[in-house]
Amino acid sequence: MISKRNIAKSLGMVCLILVVSSCGSLEKVTKEANRTVPENYTSSSATIDSTNTAEVHWQDYFTDPYLNALIDTALSNNQELNITMQEIEIARNEARARKGEYMPYVNFGAGAGIDKPGRYTSKGANDATTDIKPGMEMPDPLPDYMFGLNATWEVDIWHKLRNARQSALRRYAASVEGKNFMVTNLIAEISRSYYELLALDNQLDIINQNITLQSNALEIVKMQKQAARVTELAVRKFEAEVFHTKSLQYDVQQKIVETENRINFLVGRFPQKVERSSDAFANLIPDTIHSGVPSQLLENRPDVRQAELELAAAKLDVKVAKAKFYPSVGISAGVGFQAFNPQYLIKTPQSLLFSLAGDIAAPLINRAAIKATYNNANAKQLQAIYNYEQTLLNAYIEVANQMAKISNMEKSYELKSKEVDALTESIKISNGLFRSARADYMEVLLTQRDALESKFELIETKQQQMNAFVNMYKALGGGWK
């Protein structure tokens, strides 16, 4: 006779054999993510300073009140950011759903029915021959009333369900970091567009000043033609130069409209005038930026943190996929009341019913599909590792590039300023020489054109300098805290 103890031992041996055979041919990812970064952003042996501009709040980093008002509005109204907020809510609900999977499922049920078996069936014939005392006959047809609780629970002995929940929690946290990275990008994009708008305003002022200057020169040339000192060719050349400069005016005005509307789109509003102060643009001087040490990118950059959390989730997914090879253990139970007459429904113990059952199941036939899922989880883990390493490398290079750009733009702006001063002085000299007939009109035209181009380039250099100031803050991971 087979005892219950022997049955339990046999089931245990079967589970052990299934587990060993399930794991024998599995391939496991052995690569680990490389989290090491250089000690400094430059190859010099300068003293390492851990002071980091990324810790500065964006309201303190950007001092223009008009720009700060735009950023503050965008953080509330930007549609793309609001879409991302809903994605975070979806990820949060997914984590909650995963939590419920490893808790018991308890359902309440109630029902009523009626049963009339045929007389010449096994059940009908059995009921007909039942000897019941008068007044205690079985009703025909037979009603059936019941209510009770049913519970099912998968015993998570391999932590398959718990790991799935932890993976969902990691992805929820990663979605939050994705939102933070979007905030950083949004602040940077609005700031760059704002400084571009200031630069266009200054370019438009330079064009208007040159139109006045060239128009005055044209009048002088016309008077000199009347005095037979120059020909009609000189007059036409100066007129063409005035028309060319006026055409630039409308090109810049169109760029101003497009830039304003780009800012309005980011702020989440219909086109309207963007309030700004353009007068002090040429005198803007970026504050001193402290880059800190590269290892701080691991904490300050939201995209690096997001990639790290995605990697952690991918590792847990591998464990979940591996656990599907193991036997699953389930428990089901029920308790309730059932009777053919409502007045007997809650009469105990006669109407009380209960059940308790356990089961164990392991995959035998469809193992190829489970193995494919496991291999996919391994491949996605490798993807997450490479993505993390790439994100960290990109963050480091962005900071290194912007550090070099800030330094180079500062030197370039100093030289461009000297070039503009020299050409502005040359305009006065060429005009004086032209009046005294000691310079050709082409020299005057070329000097004015060179001066206009140099002023444009100076404004563009200032814009690039301010963009580097913005991009450095973004590269360090500032703006989202």
TrEMBL record:
It comes from the Bacteria. It is found in: Cell membrane. Residues 71-98 form a coiled coil. It is a lipid-anchor. Keywords: Coiled coil, Lipoprotein, Membrane, Palmitate, Signal, Transmembrane, Transmembrane beta strand. The keyword Coiled coil applies. GO terms for molecular function: efflux transmembrane transporter activity. InterPro entries: MdtP/NodT-like, OMP_efflux. GO terms for cellular component: plasma membrane. Residues 1-25 form the signal peptide. Belongs to the outer membrane factor (OMF) (TC 1.B.17) family. This is Efflux transporter, outer membrane factor lipoprotein, NodT family. It comes from Owenweeksia hongkongensis (strain DSM 17368 / CIP 108786 / JCM 12287 / NRRL B-23963 / UST20020801).
